[in-house]
Amino acid sequence: MNHLEKISVCLDKGQLDALIITSEPGEYYAVGMKGEGLVLVTRERNCYFTDSRYIELAEQTVANAAITMTTPERSQLVLAKEVLSDCGLRRIGIEEQYLTLEQYRKMEQLFSDAVTFVPASELLTELRGAKDAEELALMRKAQAITDQVFLEILNNLKPGVTERQIAARITYLQMQYGAEKNSFDPIVASSYRGSMPHAIPDDKPIQSGEFVTMDFGCIYQGYCSDMTRTVAVGQPTDEMRQVYDAVLQAQLAGIAQAKAGVPGCDIHNAAWQVLEDAGYGDYFGHGFGHGLGLEIHEKPNANRSNREPLPVGAVISAEPGVYLPGKFGVRIEDVLWLTKEGNVNLTQSPKELIVLE
User: Residue 39 belongs to what domain range?
Assistant: First the structure.
């Protein structure tokens, strides 16, 4: 069953006559395009509307949907309204989590009372949360690129090199090895800056005796990778080794708990308890993991607030961390594919403490 068929089958669940898809990830999930188009899914037919900039690519890429090019007089929404009117469809799902207020008001004005718009972002979110075999293969490839970049970037981590230079090198290498682009701006944080989980790389030079945390990922054919490693440049202190070991043990505990059917909070708490027992529970402020796929952050989540069981086929990060203000931080992150029996780790990079002399 292709993605358009999966979406169509789910219309009954939302008591919908049709679904309008306007977001970039939704569009790509449905038809494999990122061309600022609009996808209309009904029980009987699927349509894709885009403009002259993307029509040729759409004709080469989109399957199982009728393709129509917009004109100045017939916009994407006008074409969608024509189809809905012809078919007598009134209860229409929209991706409310992606629409701006201005966009929604324009839709209301155009459609007037002809249809009823129904929030339906969750419908697509649930479908996207369980990766099929094709999606998983693309995510494996994206993760393999990231693994390859990590092994090479170790050669660049030397005293005197700046965080910004390392971030630039990561970006270059990911593109060189086949990525479309970064899945997010690389995080490179050394020494005391490592206590900021999302530190922005600056011109601080790396020095001997420091931890360097690198969090980065890439996009391959639409799908994201994500990985964090903390390495020591020069010999670490006993405290640095102690914190690193605590984070590693916490990650392993969370990974051992991670499988389909387990609530996200249970996975998070398994890791948090290890850090709490080691005296670092107060220094782990974020969730154990987040879903990823067409977006770097998407549902489902493995955090303290998610009590929902995670679905079979979900792909989540596994990234506990300890952040000591003014000193340093440690985070270790892998990406897991969840099964009924457990999980498969898509990340192959070593995570025992690496000390670069």
Answer: 3-128
